[in-house]
Amino acid sequence: MRPTREFLFRHPAHFLALGFGTGLAPKAPGTFGTLAALPFFFLAHLVGGQTGVLLVAAIFFVAGIWASDVTGKALGVSDDGSIVVDEIAAYLLVLAFAPLSAAGVFIAFILFRVFDIVKPWPISVADRRIKGGFGVMFDDLLAAIYAIIGLWFLRNILDGVRL
């Protein structure tokens, strides 16, 4: 079943899991869901800096387990493409470690999306084997860790790369 606007508002879990509606995008819902993290990032960073962003990412992760589980069961698909709260939580985590610049935010976005889409080992294994709300959130957490390592690599190994 393809979720609709009516489905989005049927349950608070659906609203959260579908990224406040961004998961309803007909093409690239994961990309739109990832972008939905930006207002939360800027607000959390403004109020609490890196700690604030990490706290908001953790809240999205925990709430996302519940929301993804409820929504996946309602859709009949554990990790439907319209469920994008995992992208929001994971991109927030990456942004907590990204340089606070347009280039830093953009490179963090690209790195996260690449690892989320390509799913290198062990992300692919987690994606196949861990189901339910935790599974939905966990593979994106791994993609976020890969993206954070990528940011670190760009900043520290490739000496002189300014983000």
Description:
It is a single chain. The chain is mainly α. Helices cover 74% and strands 0% of the residues. It is built from eight helices and no strands. It has helices at residues 5-10, 12-17, 29-35, 37-75, 85-96, 102-118, 123-129, 132-157. Helix 6 (102-118) crosses helix 8. The protein is globular and about 50 Å long. The mean pLDDT is 95.
Number of strand elements = 0
Radius of gyration: 15 Å
Mean of pLDDT: 95
Q: Give the biggest sheet.
A: none
Question: Per the principal axes of the C-alpha atoms, what is the gross shape?
Answer: globular
Distance between the termini: 42 Å
Number of helices: 8
Order of helices and strands: HHHHHHHH
Secondary structure category: mainly alpha
- Uncertain segments are none
Estimated share of beta-strand residues: under 5%
Helix content: over 70%
Nutshell version of this structure?
The chain contains eight helices and no strands.
Which terms summarize this structure?
about 160 residues; mainly alpha; globular
